[in-house]
Amino acid sequence: MNGAILKATLVLVAALATTGCSSLNKKPAAPVENSGISNGEMSDIDAARSKGAANGAGAGLAELNNPNSPLAVRVLYFDHDSSNIRADFAPAVAAHAAFLASHPQVTITLEGHTDEQGSREYNLALGERRALSVRRQLVLLGATAGQVRTVSYGEERPVADGHDEQAYSLNRRAEIIYQQ
Amino acid sequence: MKWFATVLLCLACVGAAAESGPLVIRITQGVEGALPIAIVPFEWTGAPMPEDISQIIANDLTRSGRFKPMPRTDLPSRPTDFAQVNFKDWRTVGMDNLVVGRINATGDGAYTVEFRLLDVFSGTQLAGFQIPASNANLRLTAHQISDIIYKTLLNVPGAFSTRIAYVTVNRLDAKHSTYRLQIADADGYDAKTVLESKQPLLSPAWSPDGNRLAYVSFEDRNSAVYVQDVRSGQRQKVVSGAGINSAPAFSPDGRRLAVTRSQDGNPDIYVVDIASGQQTRVTTSEAIDTEASWAPDGSAIVFTSDRSGGPQIYRVAPSGGEARRVTFNLGNYNARASYSPDGRYLVMVNGGGGYRITLLDLKTGSGRRLTDSNLDESPSFAPNGSMIIYATMAGRGTELAAVSVDGSIKQRLALQQGAVREPAWGPFRQ
Predict the structure, then answer these.
(1) How many domains is chain B built from?
(2) How many domains does chain A have?
(3) Which of A38, A46, A59, B348 stands the most exposed, by the fewest C-beta atoms within 10 Å?
C-alpha cells in the first residue's frame, strides 16, 4: 500500500513538472472533467512526434516503461464493497486516459478483482463493477470505449493468500494491462 | 494481441486413471441415537475380492451419521446367511440390525452379490437381494446395498451411489495454478478429472440426468459457459461474449440453462435453450442479478440481486416478469440460494459476522444457520434432501464439508492435495 501512495505522489510531481515530457509536442487542452490534478492543465499530447525519432509512436509508447511516469501505476485498489475510484488513484487514471486518448491505436485490458469474502459468482459481478468503474472514468477523460476491454475474475485470481484484511485489501483491485 | 496464458485441456479424461488419494471423510459431529448395526464381512468364493464390500457399506452408513456400525473385531460371530444367525448373540451385544452376505465370483470378472438385512429383535429378514456385478461396478454395488439398508430402516432414499463434482486448485507458483474439474463418488473414491485448465474453472452444475456438467471456464481469457458430456468428454460452448457469462443452472427438464450475462450492461439472468442457443432475458434491473437456481417443478427461479442495496434472494418466473424478494429479516447479505429437492427449503450463504450456510423455510420465512465456521460457500443439496455439501475454509485452503439438514451431523471431506471448492451434488443414478 505504501508503494501505491508513493507512486501516486510521483504522479502529482510528474504532473506539476510537465517539462518532463519534453519529447512530445503539446497542444491546448480540450476541456476535461475533474482530473484530480492540482495544476489544472491536462495537455492533449500529440500522438506521434519525438525529436529525431524515426518512429514517433515508439517514443510515446516508451513512456509506458518509465517507472517514474504516472502510467507506471497499473493496479488500483478499492475499499470493501466499493467500486468507487479512490482519490489517491484519480491522477493515475487521468494519466492513463490521456495516454490512451493520444495513442488511439493502443488498447488495454482492465481486470476487475475482489477479495474472497462471500459468494464466488456475486464476486464475479462485483469485480466487473470495478473494471467498469475505471473504464467509465477513462472514457470520460478522453479514451474511447473500444480501447478498453474489461474482464472480471472475481475472487479467482488473488495476489495475496491470507484471510485477513491485509490480504483482502490487496485483492480488491483493478489491473490495467497494456496490450503489447 | 498476444495471449500469454497457455491452457491445458484434457477433454476426454473420463477414461483416465483415477487420481491418487480419495477424499478422506472425517465425521466431526454425529447424531445421538445413531442406529447400532452389525455388518458381517461377506463370504466370498472364487477369485480374490478387489473390493471389501462390507467395509464400503459400513463406511457409507457411518458417514451418514445415522448409523453406528459395530467394529469388526467386536463381532461375536460371522454368519453369512439367515440360517447361520443366532439372534440372541446379537441382542446381547445391543445390535438392532444385522447385515450378512455372500459374494460369488462366477469368472471373467463377474460376480453375484447376495445380502440380507435382518431385524435382530424379531429375528426376521427385512430385505434380501441378489445383485449381479462386475469388477467395474463392485463399489457401486456396495453403495446400492447401503442405499437399500438406509431406505429400509429410515424410509428415506439413500444417496450413497450418487456422485459429486467439484473444482480443485493446485498452486504451482505465485502466478500459476492448475484448475481441475473432477467427479468422484459421494464417498470420495474414484475421482476422475473431467477438465484441466491453467485458467479458473467454477460453478459446476449437474444436468438432471447426471450425464452432463455445465461450468464456467476462463480459458478464453474471459468467463464462458460450457456444457460437457461426462461420459464422452464432448463439450460445447453455450454462452460467451463480452462481459460475464456464468452461473449456469439446468432446468428440471434438462433442456435449458439459466445463466448470468452482463453483455447488455449489468449482470442479468437469462434462460438459454441449449440445443438452439436461443436466449430469453429474465431480469432487467440495473443491479447485479446472478446465481439462478430452478425450483424442482420448474415454476420459478430464485436468484441473488442487490437491487435493494446488498445481495438478497429473489424469486421470478422463468419467463421473466416481476421478481419478489424472498429473504427478509436475515441480515444484509444473502446469496447463492438453491432449492431442496422437495422444494420446501432454500439453502444459501448468509453473511453477517462470517459467511455461513443457512436454511430458509419457504413456508414460514424463517432462517436457520447450519454452520458456525466463517468462510463457507457453494452449498448444494444431496438428492435425498438429507445433507448439504459445501466448501469451507480450513488451514490448507478450502475443503469440502457436509451438514445434515437439521444441522446435527457434520462431516469434513479432506483432499490430500490442493484446495477443493465449488461442490455440486449429483442426482440419483438413473
Answers:
(1) 2
(2) 1
(3) A38
